[in-house]
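COMPLEX REQUEST
Ligand: thymidine-5'-diphosphate
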Amino acid sequence: MEDSFLFNMKTILVTGGAGFIGSNFINYILKNRDDYFIINLDKLTYAGNLENLKESETNKNYIFVKGDITNNELVNFLFGKYKIKYVINFAAESHVDRSILGAEVFYRTNVIGTNVLLEAARRFNIEKFLQISTDEVYGSLGPTGLFTETTPLSPNSPYSSSKAAADMMAMAYHHTYGLPVVITRCSNNYGPYQFPEKLIPLMIINALNNKKLPIYGDGMNVRDWIYVIDHNKAVELVFEKGKVGEVYNVGASNEMPNLQIVKLILKHLNKNEDLIEFVKDRPGHDRRYAIDSSKIQNQLGWKPEFTFESAIEHTINWYLENKSWWERILTGDYLKYYSEQYSNR
Ligand code: NAD
Ligand code: TYD
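STATUS: Structure written out below.
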């Protein structure tokens, strides 16, 4: 690759780009911009799936590297080789239930991995480090009120505590070393390519297979849902215009109890509510999340473009039309894609 080619581009290390939000981000960005050169560093854990990136894999502004963000040597090599100027850190262990079953890998990837990236970013003097965080770092709300950027961090699960630790570390690097860090904290995403362990895809797929839909507790836990493209447009905007040292909450003001979402999915698929099964609650289950996103709206001009009604319908239809994508996940076949695709390269 010519140095002059990279010189004219924004060379961005995107981590975790084979996951749900990261792959939607890369596909969206490569369709809409020609000034970004993306190096996608992903370990391809169970949640990473290169099939999500089929439409991008031959793009000249895109390179995939299979690797772990905790691998100091590899990360430093990539910074040097590609003259990386920017980092967008999506890579994480992301599922709360898995963090309850085994927390260690969450701290390794989400905390140590972020530290490796921050250290390399410091060494190579990069221009911006965007840490993709979550509203879950704020803990749980009562029946009223919203999370703002000044709400104290009060994470309750191993997952959210590892994300909060990463946020605090990233800000400490800003304050101590002047590293140009910015953080986004988004609410629950939904959309195409979401791994079927999370509420919405799990319920769609179980319903299609006439399997029981397991609802934790009384089903009245509230999440604030946002379509993944709205999130990614906010990421793009914060990447371009976000003020260094700042946090931006991202959410679409769409609070819903889990039971309501599950009923809506069943209705859309013409399935009977008898499929619903109330099961034992998740330990430490946060009751309610709700985001105040007025800062990013007022300061950067972002606003959500998709209504829940249209985007959830689009999402359900996507799972209906892409049965082979999730069937290959359920059988584990998608894991073979990498070796087949890359064995001759
Ligand atoms: P995901 O689990 O679908 O994808 C995570 C990706 O990171 C996978 O491709 C995986 O292979 C990769 N990865 C994991 N460990 C790695 C490591 N050590 N090195 C390199 N790559 C590694 O997650 P997602 O839902 O796309 O979430 C992406 C980011 O957004 C996460 O940081 C998450 O905390 C944050 N977030 C998610 C949501 C949501 O609703 N899903 C909401 C707010 C914030
Ligand atoms: P999830 O998609 O795991 O996201 P998070 O826990 O990060 O918000 O869960 C969303 C909500 O759905 C949460 O309140 C837990 C609940 N839930 C169920 O009731 N049953 C399930 O099988 C799953 C996966 C989640």
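REMARKS: The mean pLDDT is 96. Residues 15-16, 18-22, 41-45, 47-48, 68-70, 90-94, 109, 113, 132, 134, 163, 186, 188-189, 195 surround nicotinamide-adenine-dinucleotide (ligand 1) (CB under 6 Å).
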